[in-house]
Amino acid sequence: MTTLVLTVVGDDRAGLVSAVADIVDAHGGNWENSELAELAGAFAGIVEVSVAADHADALRGALEALAGTLTVTVHTGAPEGTASAPHSVTLEVIGNDRPGIVREISAALSSRGVSIERMSTQTTDAAMAGGRLFEAAITVTLVGGVETDDLIEELERLAAEIQVDVSLAD
């Protein structure tokens, strides 16, 4: 089996997921994992699909037929057994919204060789205080001897500097 990672973007409308799923199914593919969302009137997502190696090129070609409705970019995923996740932790970040929060947190993670597995962010109205709140859930993979306590200590230092709360999720 070959793993393909699809990125999909287009103007939001009914039937986009169904159109992609129909093509994947018609080529013997299996929809494995995905993150899909409507953001500011656009539909965007990332989908992991497994397909027999001899069907992968035909699947790629069929997905190109969605052009005009949905832009689909196909990437070849890592071969099975090569991805490793020695130790994963999920961090929660919350604070008053301002430019640069994602840049500063991702830079701190990157500087320690920590890889982001999954990140979900949102801004919401702050109910009692007014203004906007920034919230993030970030799952990271710790490799190369990075210890959870050391990472939390570094992120707590950064959190005080950029005025957000960072905690280890339960």
Automatic annotation (TrEMBL):
CDD domains in alphabetical order: ACT (cd02116), ACT_GcvR_2 (cd04869)
Domain annotation ACT: ranges: 5-77, 90-170
InterPro entries: ACT-like_dom_sf (IPR045865), ACT_dom (IPR002912), GcvR (IPR016867), UPF0237/GcvR_regulator (IPR050990)
Protein name (record): Glycine cleavage system regulatory protein
